[in-house]
Automatic annotation (TrEMBL):
CDD domains named in the record: SRPBCC_CalC_Aha1-like_2
Family assignment from sequence similarity: Belongs to the AHA1 family.
Entries under SUPFAM superfamilies matching the protein: Bet v1-like (SSF55961)
InterPro entries: ASHA1/2-like_C, START-like_dom_sf
A matching Pfam family: AHSA1
Highest taxon, organism lineage: Bacteria
Protein name, entry field: SRPBCC family protein
Every Activator of Hsp90 ATPase homologue 1/2-like C-terminal domain range: 14-153
Length: 156
């Protein structure tokens, strides 16, 4: 088991309930979760504790970042381990990969704390597989959070 922890956070100009709703909406997730340079498609969706989703992330330029599952994709199965609206969401993520350095279950904990008229969103990833570069992973989480902020703030 890997004991590494990766983190990223961002202030989003929306109340925690609006942010939480975007974390549990299939269409929203497809729009904001893929980090820069990727697009995503949800193949399975079950938004309840013990449920989860399967997302296929496709690299727009696979030559720049080879995928974990295939040359151009990362496929991840995510379980909703804990849902505590509107302040906390815990996910367990497993990547489909032949490379054992991507094996294992990574836990992603989303904390949503009200700050003024907005929400401080902090994502903490624990037991990150060693094949995932820490700087790249934290930049990816930050990119997803920027997408989430843009998505929610544009909806007003």
């Amino acid at each position: 088991m890997n004991n590494r922890t990766d983190r990223a956070g961002r202030l989003i100009s929306a109340p925690p309930a609006a942010v939480y709703d975007a974390l549990l909406d299939r269409e929203s997730l497809e729009m904001w979760l893929p980090p820069e340079g990727m697009r995503g498609h949800v193949e399975r969706w079950d938004p309840r504790p013990g449920g989860g989703f399967r997302m296929v992330l496709t690299y727009l330029d696979p030559a720049e970042s080879p995928g974990k599952t295939s040359d151009a994709t990362d496929v991840v199965d995510v379980e909703f381990a804990q849902l505590v609206p509107p302040t906390r969401l815990v996910q367990r993520a497993v990547f489909e990969a032949d490379d054992p350095s991507y094996a294992g279950t990574m836990t992603m904990t989303w904390h949503l704390a009200p700050v003024g008229d907005g929400t401080e969103v902090t994502v903490t990833a624990t037991d990150v597989p060693p094949g995932i570069d820490q700087a790249v992973h934290e930049a990816g989480i930050a990119s997803s959070l920027a997408n989430l902020a843009s998505y929610i703030e544009a909806r007003g």
